[in-house]
Amino acid sequence: MSKQTVIEIIDHDGGMDGRFSRPPGALGRAVAVGHAMCPRDNRWSSLAGALAALSAITKNRYVVAFNGMHVRLNLYVADVEPTASGKETGRTLARLLTSAADTYYTDDIVSKPALHEVLSHKPQMLACIDEFGRYLAEARADSSSHRGQMMTFMMTLYGLAGSFLSERTYAKKTDTKPLVDKPFLSALLSTTPERLEGALGSTDVVDGTMNRLTMILAGNTTPPFKPLGRKSIPNDKLPADLDEMCKRIAKGPPLPEEKQGDDLGLDALSDPEGGTVTMDEALERQHDQFMREMDARKDKGGSIGPMWGRAAEQVLRVAGVMTVADTALAGDLIREIPMRPEIYQWAQAFVVNGIDTLEQGMAADIVDTPLERMRRSIMKAIEKREGKPPKHNPGVGWVRYVDVSGAVRSGKSEARTSKAVEDEIEMLIEDGVLERCHWPKKTAGGSDIRPMKIVSWLRKRVNPYPFD
User: Fold this and answer.
1) How far apart are CA 361 and CA 357, in angstroms?
2) Residues pairing with 459 in the sheet
3) What is the pLDDT along the chain (468 residues), one digit of tens a residue?
4) Which residues contact 79 (CB under 8 A, 6 or more apart)?
5) Which fold has domain 3-366?
6) Rounded to whole angstroms, how far apart are CA atoms 353 and 311?
7) Which residues pair with 164 in a beta bridge?
8) Closest CA to 194 of 324, 96, 55, 85
């Protein structure tokens, strides 16, 4: 069976467009090497492994600059492929790339305290989780389980690469975990379509987990073995050009001229904002338009909506990783690397195709879950009240939090706890669908003697922005 035949099967079997398994530049070079190692005619696992690993080995030393913001480059890559399709090749490639760049790799962390402990010693790392769909289903069935707590913890870490992880204090002093400055966690999450669909079928796809994932969906057909004569290469060593690329990325950007020659130690070399991926004016305008288009898709609602709200951020992360890798493949890194339009355009099309594929293949099974119905009830409660706001309100569109939560809890169709409603409202705020403010409620008679009561207010977000 030819390569083209394999691609056609993937294209028409619930998977992503086959052309995305052949990315340009350094990422494409790494995928080609992984494909040569794999006994099956499969590039998707190598794409997932390479993208996750290249993200990890940037070690928080580069950011993408856009409109005054800095977008970090850590990625959580979901590799969704059939059983026995060769997903191990992606993990093998990821191990080789991270090893060459002296970046910590692990596939053996099963709890929140364990992950916190590792990050306190290795604040830049790649975590691999096999059978992620089963992991997700178990975590959602019991959020207080070890896996449930770890899943929530990972989603929190996604946005902390420019901040810090707080100290965790426990009754037993030896269990206390220290503060971690700018933790930079990347992840390779492997599962099968059936496992993922089963996990999503019982809850809402767009909670704080799914909209942080960069999706790679290969379809439902196991790729064939390579024909006799197309030998696989050994999987224990990278080619020299990729090995050198990883070492250059590990070295990081050069120090500023005013700091060169100073005895600054290793900390200076790992300055998280040591380098910047820049966008020219035309590219910034293109991305600004893309953001607005994604917001429009998000505002249509549905089970995938908030994933579209974060698509613009995902594009910059993917394009930033590819830009750093391309530069390092060609030579030493520089402090300011211009993003090439063709890299941005590929990343944009890739991210959109991944979310589109998930929406088309799985939305029918998850569109009417209890959480999705609750989400719709929250939005309807806001829309019903926003045209008739109480007196002394913060402004146009604001409604009282307590009025919305009360209306949703008292829905006639199904009982809902206060905590469940509050959790879903918090998720809508985090996803950029809603915003909240605190505003004093005028007391009876307008007395200045009695203290003003501070009330929480909600409204549909006016200027949604997808970045942490």
Assistant:
1) 6
2) 435
3) 333 333 333 343 568 999 999 999 999 999 999 999 999 999 999 999 999 999 999 999 999 999 999 999 999 999 999 988 889 999 999 999 999 999 999 998 878 899 999 999 999 999 999 988 877 777 766 666 777 788 888 988 999 999 999 888 766 767 788 899 999 999 999 999 888 877 775 444 445 688 899 999 998 889 999 888 777 788 889 999 999 999 999 999 988 765 554 444 334 334 445 799 999 999 999 999 999 999 888 877 666 777 898 999 999 999 999 999 999 999 999 999 999 999 999 999 999 999 999 888 765 555 455 666 787 888 888 888 887 777 777 888 888 888 898 888 876 556 678 877 887 888 788 666 788 888 776 544 444 444 556 678 888 876 544 444
4) 44, 45, 48, 49, 87, 90, 188, 189, 190, 191, 216, 218
5) Rossmann fold (3.40.50)
6) 11
7) 181
8) 85
Rounded distance, CA 365 to CA 349, Å? Answer: 25
Phi-psi region of 86 (alpha: psi -120 to 50; beta: other; left: phi over 0): left
Beta bridge partners of 458: 399, 436
Residue 177: DSSP 8-state: B
Handedness of CA 343, 349, 350, 352 (dihedral sign): positive
How far from the centroid of its chain's Cα atoms is residue 269's Cα?
Answer: 26
Q: Where are the domains of the chain?
A: 3-366, 370-460
| Assigned fold of 370-460 | Arc Repressor Mutant, subunit A (1.10.10)
* Diameter over CA atoms, the chain: 89
